[in-house]
Amino acid sequence: MFPVLAFLIGVIAGLRAMVAPAALSWAVWFGWLQVSGSWLAFLGWGFMPWLLTLLALAELVADQLPATPSRKVPLQFGTRLVSGAVCGAALMMTLDLNTTVLSPGEMASEGLVAGLLGAVAGTLGGAEMRAWLASRFRRDSPAALLEDAAAVLGAVGIVSAMA
């Protein structure tokens, strides 16, 4: 189940790069995900959920602006890949060690790869879906808002599954 969730949080990062880490940061802050003592402990720092939420909100607004570059340009694409990989690793690190033969490092690596692959799928698939929806609506705004809703609701669903 965890590699699937790691892939799915990567898909969310591919749709909106900051929504996935914001959701995971809140999950860590509420104690639903345990990453303390790891390189991902920063997700639970007191101000981090607020900062990442602010960045996610800024991304949702910026996405509506006509001057916003395509998610497929190197900087945008790379950001989504990093976000998906980090979020996938964070989810896999929460796996109960008694249910697997993998070491914590192997679990994090598996999550990193699953999140990375999910981010590729979310970035490319999200762009295609949004273009298709925009052509149906004859404008981009409704398609963008649906994509925003899918990213936020998807992130909440994934984090809720971890609670």
Q: How would you characterize the overall build of this protein?
A:
There is one protein chain. This protein has six helices and no strands. The chain is mostly helical. The chain has helices at residues 2-15, 19-29, 48-62, 74-92, 104-137, 141-162. The two termini are 14 Å apart. This is DUF4126 domain-containing protein. Keywords: Membrane, Transmembrane, Transmembrane helix. The chain crosses the membrane at residues 37-61, 73-92, 112-133.
Number of helices: 6
Coarse morphology = globular
Portion in beta strands: under 5%
Mean pLDDT metric? 89
Annotate the secondary structure layout.
Blueprint: H1 2-15, H2 19-29, H3 48-62, H4 74-92, H5 104-137, H6 141-162
What attributes does this structure have?
6 helices, globular, mainly alpha, single chain
In short, what is this structure?
The chain crosses the membrane at residues 37-61, 73-92, 112-133. This protein is 71% helix and 0% strand.
